[in-house]
Amino acid sequence: MKKHNFYAGPSILADEVIENAAKAILDFNGTGVSLLSISHRTKDFDDVMAEADKLFRELLAIPDNYKIFYLGGGASTLFYEVAANFLGKKAGYVNTGVWSKKAIKEARRYGEVEVVASSEDRDFTYIPKGFAIPSDLDYLHITTNNTIYGTEFHEDLTSPVPLIADMSSDILSRPVDVSKYAMIYGGAQKNLAPAGVSFVIIREDMLDKIVRDLPTMVSFRTHVDNNSMFNTPPVFPIYVLMETLRWLKKIGGVDEIFRRNGAKAKLLYDEIDRNPLFRGTVEMEDRSLMNICFVMAEGYEELAPEFLEFAKARGMVGIKGHRLVGGFRASCYNALPIESVQALVGCMQEFEKLHAKR
Ligand SMILES: *Cc1c(COP(=O)(O)O)cnc(C)c1O
User: Fold this and answer.
1) Model-level pTM greater than 0.70?
2) pLDDT for 106-139, tens place per residue?
3) Residue-range domains of the chain with CATH
4) Whose C-alpha in 113, 136, 217, 353 is 20 to 30 A from the C-alpha of 196?
């Protein structure tokens, strides 16, 4: 049976990306050697890095005064590295969920953290808006898409201090005005690659604002100056990331994927709102296009385990909600085809016919 992959992360990649990666594992570029066992200091891998850089810049319209580099360690490592590099006295954080809280916790090791806005008062079901940003902060940190709760910033903030964004789960899913950010980072395993690599897009002037003497591997300057090659980079995930960027360009770039993501999200949210058995969990205007959370509606709560089994039997994979939210989460990342959303909506409608109380 065809499976529909709604995993939150690591998550779906385009079929052709996986096929190309599989070929490269067997024989990379006709070299007769596997991608898994080449040196990162070869011309072939240099070409991969250069192409990834070029495509990333082109697809996200990254201005020339920004650098891109790759790291192991995941977004969670970057939570402390951001603060280690840039938190001298005080930083501002917007608390929109689990990942923001983890970032805040790590930042507090390095200095004062002012939580300038939070949606914790209503269980992270909305994105705070219209909050004041103090001008004495070293930087302001936001999480643009809240993978667990299913909320998303739909506009780029204007900030008087350097804006740093964790875009782990919505990178390249929508157009972003990169010039409004001092740094964009994330784990690549949600929208771009298998687990094992993080990406950082950083404005060059930030490298002069590093506030302390740091271990070599922690300083962002090391990785910019060495073009992600100070030590062995995660060769395989970077290769797959490059293949994903190629795929994204081929299908029409970020504008096209944003259109597709909008269509997928509308289809599913419309069904959640229409179907009497289900309801959404967050403010409509802040709904994420990537992670769509829903639960059984009032009066149908006890059917949740049954719906999970029902959907699973029809090929749905990974729709169990995060334990903090419960219910269901359908992650609709870039590579998820609309047919998968149609299949899920079909399940919801079939389930309604079986169980709707009249
Ligand atoms: C998944 C995720 C993380 C954690 O990423 P790791 O690479 O596992 O450390 C951080 N932030 C957001 C928004 C995420 O979705």
Assistant:
1) yes
2) 999 999 999 999 999 999 999 999 999 999 999 9
3) 4-11+253-355 (3.90.1150.10), 15-251 (3.40.640.10)
4) 113
